[in-house]
Specification:
alpha+beta; TATA-Binding Protein; four-stranded antiparallel sheet; 7 helices; 3 domains
């Protein structure tokens, strides 16, 4: 009988402790959006925000920092991403070819190291270094505060540097 009373005594504090402890824990674990937004603004320099900063941000920080309702999507997003990535190719920051396709409208960047497909809703699919290089451009170009570069003139093709070995082979052939 004493076992039954022990269970009741141990069960009661445990139940009441769980009830009183749960709300306190939820408040600590889930800060308000405003609190999280303040923390994000202190942690990141949005005037010089770049791909490295984007890689460090958690999904919760993204949601707090960027108002999804103001994100740029559609054809305007594809235009901005195309201009940004083409400029990065011209500056030799990214090695990829770009093509604009329709049905559905999308932008494709590809190389021998991977590919990325950017859709009008801002979603990105792909693999490899091209995906890694294109994702930050999509995130930046979807923000109204970001001014992408002007679209480079003509076709922008990535240059593949010729090594001395390749040069030697072509000279001997």
């Amino acid at each position: 009988m004493s076992d039954g009373s022990d269970e009741q005594e141990s069960g009661e504090p445990s139940d009441s402790g769980a009830e009183t402890g749960t709300p306190d824990t939820k408040e600590v674990e889930e800060p308000s959006v405003e609190t999280l937004r303040e923390q994000v603004e202190e942690k990141y320099d949005f005037d010089n925000f770049g791909p490295d900063d984007m890689a460090r941000m958690t999904p919760e920080e993204w949601d707090a920092a960027f108002d999804i309702e103001t994100w740029i999507t559609g054809t305007e997003l594809l235009d901005r991403v195309e201009a940004d990535v083409k400029q990065r190719v011209a500056d030799r920051e990214v090695f990829a070819r770009l093509e604009r396709l329709s049905n559905p409208e999308r932008l494709i960047a590809y190389s021998d190291e991977g590919y990325a497909v950017v859709y009008k809703d801002g979603s990105v699919a792909g693999e490899g270094t091209v995906l890694r290089d294109v994702k930050p451009s999509v995130a930046l170009c979807s923000m109204d505060e970001y001014d992408p570069p002007e679209m480079p003139e003509g076709t922008v093709l990535p240059d593949r540097p010729r090594s001395q070995r390749e040069l030697g082979r072509s000279v001997t052939e």
